[in-house]
Amino acid sequence: LTNSSSLSDFESEISVLSNLTHPNIVQFFGTYCEPASKQVYMVIEFLSLGSGLTYLQENFSKLVDSDLITM
User: Fold this and answer.
1) Residues 20-38, buried b or exposed e (16+ Cβ, 10 A)?
2) Main-chain phi, psi angles of 24, to 5 degrees
3) I want to staple 1 with a disulfide (CB 3.0 to 4.6 A). Which of 7, 22, 44, 70 is the partner?
4) Which of 41, 44, 4, 3 is nearest to 26 (CA)?
5) Backbone φ, ψ for residue 58 (5° rounding)
6) What sign results for the dihedral spanned by CA atoms 16, 19, 71, 60?
7) Distance separating alpha carbons of residues 1 and 37, to the nearest angstrom
8) Residue 1: what pLDDT?
9) How far is CA 54 from the centre of its chain?
10) How far is residue 31 CA from its own chain's centroid?
11) Which regions in the chain score pLDDT beneath 70?
């Protein structure tokens, strides 16, 4: 993370994700910091269908209102 604002935003997101448990929300497992590069990574559950954004971009026109509501 390049500045204190980015670090603060990242820490806020981690705080929120650590307290969320819902079948429609990606499960957060933790963070990892690569010592050599000082890169910080979020560890989340594997999404077999890819990202939610990609799924919506590829399938939005096929979805009906009831699909969107249950997402």
Assistant:
1) eeeeeeeebeeeeeeeeee
2) -100, 10
3) 7
4) 44
5) -85, -25
6) positive
7) 10
8) 61
9) 13
10) 12
11) 1-2, 67-71
